[in-house]
Write a structure and sequence with these properties.
Order of helices and strands: EEEEEEEEHEEEHE
Strand content: over 45%
Structural class: mainly beta
Shape: globular
Bound molecules: copper (II) ion
Largest sheet: 6 strands, mixed
Strand order of the largest sheet: 3-6-12-11-8-9
Helix content: under 10%
Length: 150
């Protein structure tokens, strides 16, 4: 996926025993620390002009990611993480608001939402915003669960 916006965001990664911070350019995986985890890490995911600040993240199996979703838009967004069933359910609009379900958070205009999701199995997990038109506009990305950088 190609991003027109060049937005620099800060990603703070808190690892057990220490805290490391680094910058991440839109659309690119974090440089120098390509695969996060295992353990608990914290990632800031920005939303600006109906774009997520990154579309790909790599984590090791056994990583619990705390997503800090910073919406700087004047409209609402959401972050939904999960398998095909989860995304199909949200795409049909049967859940308008998201209580603190793991991997699901609604974020109002100029608000910051938090959700935590644990990635255990190797593979790719999709994240997206299912508000009308947002996914087709490009609000989606992948979290690749892997042992190795790629
Ligand atoms: Cu959205």
């Amino acid at each position: 996926m190609r991003w027109r916006l060049f937005v620099s965001i800060a990603v703070a990664v808190a690892v057990a025993g220490g805290v490391t911070g680094y910058a991440l350019d839109a659309g690119n995986p974090p440089a120098g620390a390509d695969v996060l985890g295992p353990g608990e890490v914290s990632v800031e995911l920005g939303i600006e002009h109906s774009r997520f600040s990154f579309d790909r993240l790599q984590v090791r199996p056994g990583t619990t990611v705390r997503f800090e979703v910073r919406n700087t838009d004047p409209i609402a967004h959401e972050l939904i993480i999960g398998d095909d069933d989860v995304h199909n359910r949200h795409a049909t609009g049967t859940e308008a608001v998201h209580p603190p379900v793991a991997g699901e958070v609604s974020v109002g205009p100029h608000e910051t939402g938090l959700t935590t999701y644990t990635f255990d199995e190797l593979g790719t997990v999709v994240f997206a915003c299912h508000l009308p038109g947002h996914l087709s506009y490009g609000m989606k990305g992948s979290i690749v669960v892997t042992h190795d950088e790629s």
